[in-house]
Specification:
about 400 residues, mainly alpha, 6 strands, about 5% strand, globular
Length: about 400
C-alpha cells in the first residue's frame, strides 16, 4: 500500500530556523504577513518560527500556519465517499478531479481508472475494455476520469448509493477555453488549420464551416452536452434537448457551476458530509487569457445558435443553482467565506519554500471538524492530471511502496 501522503508528519514539531534572516527576507516576510492579515481578518497565524514565543501571548501562539476559527463541532453526519463525477471538458473539471483523487488517497478509496491513458473515452460510450480491474477491494468508490456519460456503465461499476455530480460552464467562455487548449496545448488539426490573425474570431464568424466533419471528434461543438451523453443528431432538436436535460436533472444529485466554483464545492461538501479539508483546491489546466478579443454581439449570437444544446443545458442548471443558493441562506454565505479564507491560507502556505516542513492546523467550526494540512499535500495540489492518474494507477496495481 502506498504511504498516505496527507496523514504523515501531523505531529511534527515546528523546526525553528537557526540561521539569521537577511534584512531583505525580513521585509518580504513582513509584507506577506500584512497582506495575509488584510485579506483574511479572522485568521491568526501563530508561533511563526522567526518570532520568539516568549514575546507573544500564549493564547495566540501555537504553530506556523495555525488558524483560529470559531471552535464548534462538525455535526454533519457520516461522510459519503461513493461518488461519480462527470468530468466535463474545460469547466474546471480537472480541479475537481484533483480534489477527489486526493480524497481517495486520504481515505484509502478505490478509484475506477482506465488501464491506459488518463481517460476512458472522449468519442463514444463504449469503453468497458479500458477498465482497470479491481485489485484489493471488492468495489470502486470514485469515478472521475473523462468519459462520455453512459448511465449503464456507471451503474454497473459503482455502488448503488453513489452520488452523481457534474459541472457546467457558461458556453461562450467554455468554447473559448477549449479553442485555446486544443489549438495550443493539445493541438487538434481541425482547429490548428483555421486561418487569420485571430483564428478564434475566424471560427466565430462561421463555426459550422470550421468544425470537424465527425462531431464525435470535436471539442468545440456542444461539447458539454456531448459529454453528458446527448447524441449529435439531437443537438438542434428542441424537444429532445428538453427531454435530455430533464433526464440529467433527475439523475444527478448536484451539477456544479464553474462561475460559482467555491459555492459549488461547499454544496458538494454538504451533500457528501465532508469537511473543509476535503474540498481544498488549486486551479489546474486554467486558461491564462493573454490575447484580448474584441467580441461583438453578432459573434455571441452566432455561437448561441450553433451551441443551442449547451446553452439550454447551462441555463437550466444555472437557474436551478441560483434557486438553491437563495434557499441556502446567510449561514451558507458565511460558510463559503470561511472556506475562501482557508483556501487562501493554503495557497499562501503552498507558495512558500519548497523544503518547508511546517503544517497548517485549522480548528473546528460548526461547518467543519478540525484538520491539519501538511506540506506534502501541496505537491498533490499542483500535480498534473496525467501524472496524478498515472500515480493512482501504479498505486492501484500495488507498485508503490
Amino acid at each position: 500500500m502506498p504511504r498516505d501522503l496527507t496523514s504523515t508528519k501531523l505531529s511534527r514539531k515546528v523546526r525553528v530556523c537557526a540561521r539569521p534572516l537577511l534584512p531583505f527576507t525580513w521585509i518580504i516576510t513582513f509584507t506577506a504577513l500584512c497582506l495575509l492579515f488584510i485579506y483574511t481578518p479572522e485568521i491568526t497565524w501563530k508561533r511563526l518560527p522567526f518570532l520568539r514565543s516568549d514575546l507573544m501571548d500564549s493564547k495566540d501562539v501555537v504553530s506556523r500556519g495555525d488558524v483560529t476559527i470559531k471552535n464548534n463541532t462538525d455535526g454533519r453526519g457520516i461522510p459519503r465517499h461513493h461518488l461519480f463525477f462527470l468530468k466535463v471538458h474545460k469547466a474546471a473539471s480537472s480541479t475537481v478531479q484533483n480534489v477527489l483523487l486526493r480524497s481517495a488517497l486520504r481515505y484509502n478509496l478505490t478509484v475506477l481508472l482506465p488501464n491506459r491513458g488518463h481517460y476512458f473515452s472522449e468519442k463514444n460510450k463504449n469503453y468497458w475494455e479500458k477498465v482497470l480491474p479491481l485489485n484489493r477491494s471488492d468495489h470502486y468508490d470514485i469515478l472521475c476520469c473523462h468519459l462520455v456519460y453512459n448511465e449503464t456503465f456507471v451503474r454497473e461499476y459503482m455502488p448503488n448509493d453513489t452520488l452523481f455530480v457534474a459541472i457546467v460552464r457558461e458556453p461562450f467562455a467554455q468554447v473559448l477555453s477549449a479553442f485555446h487548449y486544443f489549438s495550443n496545448v493539445f493541438p487538434k488539426r481541425y482547429l490548428v488549420a483555421i486561418p487569420g490573425p485571430v483564428p478564434f474570431l475566424t471560427y466565430l464568424e462561421n463555426p459550422s464551416r470550421w468544425e470537424h466533419i465527425n462531431v464525435n471528434e470535436s471539442f468545440t461543438n456542444n461539447r458539454m452536452s456531448f459529454d453528458f451523453g446527448l447524441e449529435p443528431s439531437q443537438f438542434y432538436n428542441t424537444s429532445e434537448i428538453k427531454r435530455f436535460i430533464e433526464q440529467i436533472d433527475k439523475r444527478f444529485d448536484l451539477v456544479m457551476i464553474h462561475e460559482m466554483f467555491d459555492e459549488s464545492l461547499v454544496f458538494l461538501k454538504r451533500l457528501a458530509g465532508w469537511n473543509f479539508r476535503d474540498i481544498i483546491y488549486m486551479r489546474t489546466n486554467s486558461f491564462d487569457r493573454t490575447v484580448k478579443y474584441n467580441f461583438t454581439a453578432e459573434h455571441r449570437s452566432k455561437h448561441q445558435q450553433f451551441e443551442a444544446a449547451d446553452y439550454a443545458l447551462y441555463e437550466h442548471f444555472l437557474g436551478k443553482f441560483k434557486r438553491k443558493l437563495a434557499e441556502a441562506g446567510e449561514d451558507f454565505k458565511q460558510e463559503v467565506e470561511e472556506f475562501r479564507k482557508i483556501v487562501y491560507a493554503v495557497w499562501h502556505f503552498c507558495s512558500g519554500p519548497k523544503d518547508v516542513k511546517y503544517s497548517l492546523h485549522f480548528h473546528a467550526t460548526h461547518w467543519s471538524s478540525e484538520f491539519d494540512f501538511v506540506a506534502e499535500e501541496c505537491l498533490l495540489l499542483k500535480r498534473s492530471e496525467i501524472a496524478f492518474i498515472h500515480f493512482m494507477r501504479l498505486r492501484h496495481k500495488g507498485m508503490l511502496t
